Amino acid sequence: MTKVSILNLIPKFKDESQMDAVGRAVSLAQFADDHDFSRYWIAEHHNSPAVLGAATDLMIGHILNNTKRITVGAGGVMLPNHTPFQVVERYATLNILHPGRVDIGIGRAPGTDMQTAKLIYRNIYRKEDFKNAIKEMQMYMSDEAWELDVAPFPGAGSKIPLTILGSSETSAHIAAELGLPYSFAGHFAPNTIGYALGIYRNEFKPSKYLDKPYVMLGTSVNITKTKEEAEVLKKHAENISLQFIRKERKEFMKLDPDNEPELTSMEKFILRTSKGLTIEGDIDEAAKTWKHIKEEYKPDELIGASYIPETDVLIDNYKYFEDIVLNG
């Protein structure tokens, strides 16, 4: 059976407070905790008033404090912004407070614009640098870390699970070579899903962490009960995508039928041709989409992201998502 999980960027919408956004994230996590979701990931992003994942580990700690069972982690830690030593110290501390409930997704992108990236810490975008940083983290969390002259001691022997995040063939090669689970951002890069997953599965080397390939696939999720409600969510999702295309540095806008943005011909083309992997529509349409994804890519786990401002609609969306994936 395919596992089902949630990816949350903790979006903030116009005319709501930051605590409103955090409260919605907690409510969603508590719903997931009471259901059969496997994990709840928070994404790292910087220099954006529209998302609240800048201090990812602090937000993860808050979610852990407000849930009981579910694994909570980073989807992911953008390693160019941190040292492996610091990451292990902080996440191992979370693991002490919430034993066995913490995991770490590791990404190579900066999670922001390049100007901000230069201010945060360092640049390790080369494949070998990134791979070596992951190995360094593994060493710090191993039993052998106790023998090091300098070690992040909360992490020594912690063996916190790592997953490689990516949206390109480079990340697939790295995950396969290191024998680690691979999470592909299908909601960002739908055109290379099959190619990247093929590389990962074909090149996978069994390791002490994992004996066979494990694929997590990211998708956008916008599911409602009726076709009429589905059209509203589709339009809302399109407007969110438009803000990304325009690189608008402001909070996300809620859908306003009386104040719809005017699209240029180029924007219409981009929205039509660059849409990420998405499960949307009413329950029947969404179920058909999932059936196709399952047959085409055979993921071990599906992780869904949504930008829905109304908490009840958001939770209903994930109820349908859970049911479709676990019972489809």
TrEMBL record:
Coiled coil: none annotated. It comes from the Bacteria. Transmembrane segments: none annotated. InterPro entries: Bact_Lucif_Oxidored, CmoO-like, Luciferase-like_dom, Luciferase-like_sf. GO terms for molecular function: oxidoreductase activity, acting on paired donors, with incorporation or reduction of molecular oxygen. It holds the Pfam family Bac_luciferase. Keywords: Oxidoreductase. GO terms for cellular component: cytosol. The keyword Metal-binding does not apply. Residues 17-236 form the Luciferase-like domain. Its EC number is 1.-.-.-. NCBIfam families: oxido_grp_1 (TIGR03558). To bacterial alkanal monooxygenase alpha and beta chains. This is Luciferase family oxidoreductase, FMN-dependent, PP_0088 family.
